[in-house]
Protein backbone atom coordinates (compact mmCIF):
# COMPACT_ATOMS: atom_id res chain seq x y z
CA UNK A 1 0.00 0.00 0.00
CA UNK A 2 1.34 3.46 -0.93
CA UNK A 3 2.41 5.73 1.92
CA UNK A 4 1.02 9.23 2.43
CA UNK A 5 4.26 10.65 1.00
CA UNK A 6 3.82 8.50 -2.10
CA UNK A 7 0.26 9.72 -2.63
CA UNK A 8 1.34 13.36 -2.22
CA UNK A 9 4.20 12.78 -4.65
CA UNK A 10 1.81 11.40 -7.27
CA UNK A 11 -0.56 14.36 -6.87
CA UNK A 12 2.22 16.94 -7.18
CA UNK A 13 3.89 15.37 -10.21
CA UNK A 14 0.63 15.03 -12.13
CA UNK A 15 -0.76 18.44 -11.13
CA UNK A 16 2.38 20.32 -12.19
CA UNK A 17 3.81 17.92 -14.77
CA UNK A 18 0.92 18.16 -17.24
CA UNK A 19 0.85 22.01 -17.29
CA UNK A 20 4.65 22.09 -17.66
CA UNK A 21 4.47 19.89 -20.75
CA UNK A 22 1.59 22.00 -22.11
CA UNK A 23 3.39 25.33 -21.66
CA UNK A 24 6.60 24.07 -23.27
CA UNK A 25 4.54 22.81 -26.23
CA UNK A 26 2.86 26.24 -26.52
CA UNK A 27 6.27 27.92 -26.39
CA UNK A 28 7.50 25.83 -29.32
CA UNK A 29 4.23 26.47 -31.19
CA UNK A 30 4.75 30.23 -30.82
CA UNK A 31 8.29 29.99 -32.12
CA UNK A 32 7.69 27.70 -35.08
CA UNK A 33 4.11 28.45 -36.18
CA UNK A 34 3.29 32.01 -35.12
CA UNK A 35 6.64 33.80 -35.17
CA UNK A 36 8.20 31.40 -37.69
CA UNK A 37 11.68 31.85 -36.24
CA UNK A 38 14.30 29.17 -35.49
CA UNK A 39 14.57 27.75 -32.00
CA UNK A 40 17.22 29.30 -29.79
CA UNK A 41 19.43 28.03 -27.02
CA UNK A 42 16.85 29.11 -24.43
CA UNK A 43 14.22 26.87 -26.07
CA UNK A 44 16.49 23.82 -26.18
CA UNK A 45 17.54 24.32 -22.56
CA UNK A 46 13.93 24.45 -21.38
CA UNK A 47 13.12 21.33 -23.41
CA UNK A 48 15.97 19.36 -21.82
CA UNK A 49 14.88 20.67 -18.40
CA UNK A 50 11.35 19.42 -19.09
CA UNK A 51 12.65 15.96 -20.01
CA UNK A 52 14.71 15.85 -16.81
CA UNK A 53 11.77 17.10 -14.74
CA UNK A 54 9.51 14.41 -16.20
CA UNK A 55 12.14 11.75 -15.48
CA UNK A 56 12.44 13.02 -11.90
CA UNK A 57 8.68 12.77 -11.43
CA UNK A 58 8.49 9.21 -12.75
CA UNK A 59 11.44 7.92 -10.72
CA UNK A 60 10.37 9.74 -7.54
CA UNK A 61 6.85 8.33 -7.75
CA UNK A 62 8.17 4.83 -8.35
CA UNK A 63 10.61 5.10 -5.44
CA UNK A 64 8.02 6.57 -3.08
CA UNK A 65 5.56 3.76 -3.83
CA UNK A 66 8.05 0.88 -3.74
CA UNK A 67 10.64 1.96 -1.16
CA UNK A 68 8.50 3.35 1.66
CA UNK A 69 9.92 6.86 1.43
CA UNK A 70 8.44 9.10 4.12
CA UNK A 71 7.15 6.25 6.28
CA UNK A 72 9.00 6.23 9.61
CA UNK A 73 7.49 2.88 10.59
CA UNK A 74 8.67 1.21 7.39
CA UNK A 75 11.42 -1.37 7.92
CA UNK A 76 13.38 -1.62 4.66
CA UNK A 77 15.40 -4.60 3.57
CA UNK A 78 19.03 -4.22 2.53
CA UNK A 79 18.05 -4.29 -1.15
CA UNK A 80 15.48 -1.56 -0.56
CA UNK A 81 18.05 0.59 1.24
CA UNK A 82 20.50 0.21 -1.66
CA UNK A 83 17.70 1.01 -4.11
CA UNK A 84 16.75 4.12 -2.12
CA UNK A 85 20.36 5.32 -1.99
CA UNK A 86 20.80 4.89 -5.75
CA UNK A 87 17.48 6.56 -6.48
CA UNK A 88 18.09 9.56 -4.23
CA UNK A 89 21.57 10.06 -5.71
CA UNK A 90 20.16 10.03 -9.25
CA UNK A 91 17.28 12.35 -8.30
CA UNK A 92 19.57 14.85 -6.57
CA UNK A 93 21.94 15.13 -9.53
CA UNK A 94 19.10 15.29 -12.05
CA UNK A 95 17.16 17.90 -10.08
CA UNK A 96 20.22 20.12 -9.65
CA UNK A 97 20.95 19.88 -13.38
CA UNK A 98 17.31 20.62 -14.22
CA UNK A 99 17.17 23.75 -12.05
CA UNK A 100 20.43 24.96 -13.55
CA UNK A 101 19.11 24.50 -17.10
CA UNK A 102 15.91 26.41 -16.29
CA UNK A 103 17.90 29.38 -15.02
CA UNK A 104 20.28 29.26 -17.99
CA UNK A 105 17.26 29.15 -20.32
CA UNK A 106 15.85 32.29 -18.72
CA UNK A 107 19.21 34.05 -18.90
CA UNK A 108 19.65 33.13 -22.58
CA UNK A 109 16.17 34.50 -23.24
CA UNK A 110 17.07 37.75 -21.47
CA UNK A 111 20.28 37.90 -23.48
CA UNK A 112 18.24 37.81 -26.68
CA UNK A 113 15.93 40.67 -25.69
CA UNK A 114 18.13 42.84 -23.43
CA UNK A 115 20.73 44.18 -25.84
CA UNK A 116 22.58 46.67 -23.67
CA UNK A 117 26.26 45.78 -23.46
CA UNK A 118 26.16 46.05 -19.67
CA UNK A 119 23.30 43.58 -19.37
CA UNK A 120 24.88 41.25 -21.90
CA UNK A 121 27.96 41.13 -19.67
CA UNK A 122 25.91 40.65 -16.50
CA UNK A 123 23.95 37.81 -18.10
CA UNK A 124 27.13 36.08 -19.31
CA UNK A 125 28.59 36.28 -15.80
CA UNK A 126 25.38 34.91 -14.27
CA UNK A 127 25.34 31.99 -16.72
CA UNK A 128 28.89 31.14 -15.67
CA UNK A 129 28.01 31.39 -11.97
CA UNK A 130 24.95 29.15 -12.38
CA UNK A 131 26.95 26.52 -14.27
CA UNK A 132 29.84 26.53 -11.78
CA UNK A 133 27.56 26.48 -8.74
CA UNK A 134 25.55 23.50 -9.95
CA UNK A 135 28.69 21.62 -11.04
CA UNK A 136 30.26 22.22 -7.61
CA UNK A 137 27.19 20.92 -5.75
CA UNK A 138 27.08 17.81 -7.94
CA UNK A 139 30.76 17.13 -7.21
CA UNK A 140 30.15 17.52 -3.47
CA UNK A 141 27.33 14.99 -3.63
CA UNK A 142 29.20 12.47 -5.76
CA UNK A 143 32.30 12.46 -3.56
CA UNK A 144 30.66 12.88 -0.14
CA UNK A 145 31.73 9.29 0.66
CA UNK A 146 35.02 9.46 -1.18
CA UNK A 147 35.97 7.33 -4.16
CA UNK A 148 34.85 5.22 -5.91
CA UNK A 149 31.39 6.70 -6.45
CA UNK A 150 29.84 3.26 -5.84
CA UNK A 151 30.33 3.94 -2.12
CA UNK A 152 27.31 6.25 -2.39
CA UNK A 153 24.91 3.29 -2.36
CA UNK A 154 26.85 1.23 0.17
CA UNK A 155 24.98 1.71 3.50
CA UNK A 156 27.99 0.49 5.49
CA UNK A 157 30.21 3.39 4.32
CA UNK A 158 29.95 6.59 6.34
CA UNK A 159 29.99 10.09 4.90
CA UNK A 160 33.10 12.20 5.40
CA UNK A 161 33.00 14.71 8.25
CA UNK A 162 33.21 17.74 5.93
CA UNK A 163 30.77 16.54 3.25
CA UNK A 164 27.62 15.60 5.11
CA UNK A 165 24.67 15.30 2.67
CA UNK A 166 22.39 17.31 4.96
CA UNK A 167 24.79 20.27 4.94
CA UNK A 168 25.22 20.04 1.16
CA UNK A 169 21.42 20.10 0.81
CA UNK A 170 21.20 23.35 2.76
CA UNK A 171 24.07 24.90 0.77
CA UNK A 172 22.29 24.06 -2.46
CA UNK A 173 18.91 25.39 -1.30
CA UNK A 174 20.41 28.71 -0.16
CA UNK A 175 22.51 29.19 -3.30
CA UNK A 176 19.71 28.05 -5.59
CA UNK A 177 17.19 30.43 -4.02
CA UNK A 178 19.63 33.35 -4.26
CA UNK A 179 20.25 32.69 -7.96
CA UNK A 180 16.49 32.34 -8.51
CA UNK A 181 15.87 35.80 -7.05
CA UNK A 182 18.66 37.41 -9.10
CA UNK A 183 17.58 35.69 -12.33
CA UNK A 184 13.88 36.50 -11.99
CA UNK A 185 14.36 40.11 -10.86
CA UNK A 186 16.99 41.09 -13.45
CA UNK A 187 14.54 42.31 -16.17
CA UNK A 188 12.60 44.48 -13.71
CA UNK A 189 15.52 46.93 -13.55
CA UNK A 190 15.37 47.33 -17.33
CA UNK A 191 11.61 47.92 -17.46
CA UNK A 192 11.90 50.97 -15.21
CA UNK A 193 14.18 52.76 -17.72
CA UNK A 194 12.04 52.13 -20.83
CA UNK A 195 10.18 54.95 -22.59
CA UNK A 196 6.61 53.70 -22.30
CA UNK A 197 3.36 54.33 -20.50
CA UNK A 198 2.94 53.41 -16.85
CA UNK A 199 0.36 50.78 -17.80
CA UNK A 200 2.80 48.98 -20.09
CA UNK A 201 5.53 49.17 -17.47
CA UNK A 202 3.15 47.62 -14.95
CA UNK A 203 2.17 44.89 -17.42
CA UNK A 204 5.80 44.03 -18.14
CA UNK A 205 6.72 44.08 -14.46
CA UNK A 206 3.85 41.74 -13.59
CA UNK A 207 4.78 39.42 -16.47
CA UNK A 208 8.39 39.11 -15.36
CA UNK A 209 7.38 38.91 -11.69
CA UNK A 210 5.21 35.83 -12.20
CA UNK A 211 8.28 33.70 -11.74
CA UNK A 212 8.83 35.20 -8.30
CA UNK A 213 5.90 33.09 -7.10
CA UNK A 214 8.11 30.06 -7.70
CA UNK A 215 10.56 31.36 -5.12
CA UNK A 216 7.98 30.30 -2.52
CA UNK A 217 8.77 26.69 -3.45
CA UNK A 218 12.48 27.38 -2.94
CA UNK A 219 11.81 28.96 0.45
CA UNK A 220 9.67 26.01 1.56
CA UNK A 221 12.29 23.55 0.42
CA UNK A 222 14.96 25.43 2.36
CA UNK A 223 12.75 25.37 5.46
CA UNK A 224 12.26 21.60 5.32
CA UNK A 225 15.92 21.05 4.47
CA UNK A 226 16.86 22.85 7.69
CA UNK A 227 14.28 20.82 9.63
CA UNK A 228 15.74 17.65 8.12
CA UNK A 229 19.24 18.64 9.24
CA UNK A 230 18.13 19.50 12.78
CA UNK A 231 16.91 15.95 13.41
CA UNK A 232 20.32 14.38 13.98
CA UNK A 233 18.87 10.93 14.55
CA UNK A 234 17.31 10.80 11.09
CA UNK A 235 19.59 13.13 9.11
CA UNK A 236 20.80 10.25 6.93
CA UNK A 237 17.45 8.47 6.61
CA UNK A 238 15.25 8.62 3.51
CA UNK A 239 12.36 6.82 5.21
CA UNK A 240 11.26 9.64 7.50
CA UNK A 241 8.59 12.33 7.19
CA UNK A 242 11.10 15.21 7.18
CA UNK A 243 12.81 13.89 4.07
CA UNK A 244 9.48 13.33 2.30
CA UNK A 245 8.56 17.02 2.81
CA UNK A 246 11.84 18.12 1.26
CA UNK A 247 11.27 15.68 -1.61
CA UNK A 248 7.76 17.05 -2.28
CA UNK A 249 8.98 20.65 -2.56
CA UNK A 250 11.87 19.53 -4.74
CA UNK A 251 9.26 18.00 -7.07
CA UNK A 252 7.37 21.32 -7.08
CA UNK A 253 10.41 23.46 -7.94
CA UNK A 254 11.32 22.13 -11.38
CA UNK A 255 7.92 22.19 -13.16
CA UNK A 256 6.93 25.46 -11.47
CA UNK A 257 10.01 27.24 -12.80
CA UNK A 258 9.55 25.65 -16.24
CA UNK A 259 5.99 27.02 -16.38
CA UNK A 260 7.16 30.48 -15.27
CA UNK A 261 9.98 30.43 -17.83
CA UNK A 262 7.52 29.66 -20.63
CA UNK A 263 4.82 32.16 -19.60
CA UNK A 264 6.95 35.19 -20.50
CA UNK A 265 7.44 33.86 -24.05
CA UNK A 266 3.74 33.39 -24.89
CA UNK A 267 2.98 37.00 -25.84
CA UNK A 268 2.70 36.15 -29.57
CA UNK A 269 0.10 33.48 -28.79
CA UNK A 270 -2.05 35.88 -26.78
CA UNK A 271 -1.86 38.47 -29.58
CA UNK A 272 -2.57 35.97 -32.36
CA UNK A 273 -5.96 35.00 -33.76
CA UNK A 274 -6.02 32.18 -31.23
CA UNK A 275 -5.44 34.55 -28.31
CA UNK A 276 -8.09 35.13 -25.64
CA UNK A 277 -8.96 38.65 -26.85
CA UNK A 278 -9.65 37.58 -30.44
CA UNK A 279 -11.48 34.44 -29.35
CA UNK A 280 -13.68 36.56 -27.06
CA UNK A 281 -14.49 38.95 -29.91
CA UNK A 282 -15.34 36.03 -32.18
CA UNK A 283 -17.62 34.55 -29.55
CA UNK A 284 -19.27 37.91 -28.97
CA UNK A 285 -19.91 38.37 -32.69
CA UNK A 286 -21.65 34.99 -32.78
CA UNK A 287 -23.78 35.64 -29.69
CA UNK A 288 -24.57 39.29 -30.49
CA UNK A 289 -24.39 39.52 -34.31
CA UNK A 290 -26.66 42.61 -34.64
CA UNK A 291 -25.54 44.73 -31.71
CA UNK A 292 -23.18 47.62 -31.35
CA UNK A 293 -20.72 45.37 -29.58
CA UNK A 294 -19.81 43.70 -32.84
CA UNK A 295 -19.47 47.09 -34.54
CA UNK A 296 -17.08 48.33 -31.91
CA UNK A 297 -15.05 45.20 -32.42
CA UNK A 298 -14.85 45.94 -36.12
CA UNK A 299 -13.80 49.48 -35.35
CA UNK A 300 -10.97 48.24 -33.25
CA UNK A 301 -10.01 45.85 -36.01
CA UNK A 302 -9.87 48.67 -38.57
CA UNK A 303 -7.77 50.78 -36.22
CA UNK A 304 -5.34 47.89 -35.91
CA UNK A 305 -5.15 47.74 -39.71
CA UNK A 306 -4.32 51.45 -39.83
CA UNK A 307 -1.67 50.96 -37.18
CA UNK A 308 -0.19 48.09 -39.18
CA UNK A 309 -0.07 50.26 -42.33
CA UNK A 310 1.59 53.06 -40.37
CA UNK A 311 4.13 50.65 -38.91
CA UNK A 312 4.91 49.31 -42.39
CA UNK A 313 5.46 52.88 -43.67
CA UNK A 314 7.80 53.69 -40.79
CA UNK A 315 9.72 50.47 -41.38
CA UNK A 316 10.08 51.35 -45.08
CA UNK A 317 11.46 54.80 -44.20
CA UNK A 318 13.92 53.25 -41.78
CA UNK A 319 15.23 50.94 -44.44
CA UNK A 320 16.05 53.98 -46.59
CA UNK A 321 18.47 55.40 -44.02
CA UNK A 322 22.18 55.49 -44.92
CA UNK A 323 23.95 52.23 -44.22
CA UNK A 324 26.75 54.12 -42.42
CA UNK A 325 24.47 54.60 -39.41
CA UNK A 326 25.69 51.55 -37.58
CA UNK A 327 24.30 52.11 -34.10
CA UNK A 328 23.02 49.63 -31.58
CA UNK A 329 19.46 50.78 -32.27
CA UNK A 330 19.84 49.82 -35.94
CA UNK A 331 20.99 46.36 -34.93
CA UNK A 332 18.00 46.02 -32.66
CA UNK A 333 15.58 47.02 -35.40
CA UNK A 334 17.12 44.54 -37.82
CA UNK A 335 16.38 41.74 -35.36
CA UNK A 336 12.81 42.76 -34.57
CA UNK A 337 10.16 40.04 -34.65
CA UNK A 338 6.53 40.01 -33.67
CA UNK A 339 7.52 39.05 -30.17
CA UNK A 340 10.37 41.56 -29.82
CA UNK A 341 8.53 44.75 -30.72
CA UNK A 342 9.71 48.26 -29.89
CA UNK A 343 7.97 49.82 -26.92
CA UNK A 344 8.83 53.50 -27.12
CA UNK A 345 5.71 55.51 -27.88
CA UNK A 346 7.47 58.75 -28.93
CA UNK A 347 9.25 59.03 -32.25
CA UNK A 348 11.75 61.59 -30.93
CA UNK A 349 13.17 59.07 -28.47
CA UNK A 350 13.61 56.21 -30.91
CA UNK A 351 17.38 56.37 -30.87
CA UNK A 352 17.55 56.27 -27.09
CA UNK A 353 16.16 52.76 -26.85
CA UNK A 354 18.54 49.96 -26.06
CA UNK A 355 16.21 47.06 -25.48
CA UNK A 356 13.49 44.91 -26.98
CA UNK A 357 10.48 43.52 -25.22
CA UNK A 358 7.59 41.15 -25.32
CA UNK A 359 4.51 43.32 -25.06
TrEMBL record:
Q: Please list the residue ranges annotated as the Rhodopsin domain.
A: 26-271
Topological type in the membrane: Multi-pass membrane protein
* Ranges annotated as biased composition (Polar residues): 294-316
Classification via Pfam families: Fung_rhodopsin
Q: Which Gene Ontology terms of cellular component type are present? A: membrane
Alphabetically ordered keywords of this record: Membrane, Transmembrane, Transmembrane helix
**InterPro entries found in the cross-reference section:** Rhodopsin_dom_fungi, SAT4-like
Provide the protein's localization. Answer: Membrane
Q: Where is this region: Disordered?
A: 294-322
Q: Which residues cross the membrane?
A: 12-32, 44-69, 89-110, 122-143, 169-190, 202-224, 247-270
**What family classification does the UniProt entry report for this protein?**
Belongs to the SAT4 family.
**Listed PANTHER family:** INTEGRAL MEMBRANE PROTEIN-RELATED, PTH11-LIKE INTEGRAL MEMBRANE PROTEIN (AFU_ORTHOLOGUE AFUA_5G11245)
Protein name per its UniProtKB record: Rhodopsin domain-containing protein
Q: Identify the species of origin.
A: Lophiotrema nucula
Q: What is the lineage of its organism?
A: Eukaryota, Fungi, Dikarya, Ascomycota, Pezizomycotina
Amino acid sequence: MATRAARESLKVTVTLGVPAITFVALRFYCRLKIQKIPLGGDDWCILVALLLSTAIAIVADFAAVNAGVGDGSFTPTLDQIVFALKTVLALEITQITCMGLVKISLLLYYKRILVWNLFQTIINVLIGIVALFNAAIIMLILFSKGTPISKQWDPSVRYTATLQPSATLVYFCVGNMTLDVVTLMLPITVVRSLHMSANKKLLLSVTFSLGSLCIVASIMRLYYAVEYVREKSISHSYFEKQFSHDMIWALVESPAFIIAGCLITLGPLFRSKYGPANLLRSLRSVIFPNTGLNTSSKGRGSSRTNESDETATISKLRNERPSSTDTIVDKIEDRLTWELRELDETGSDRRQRNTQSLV
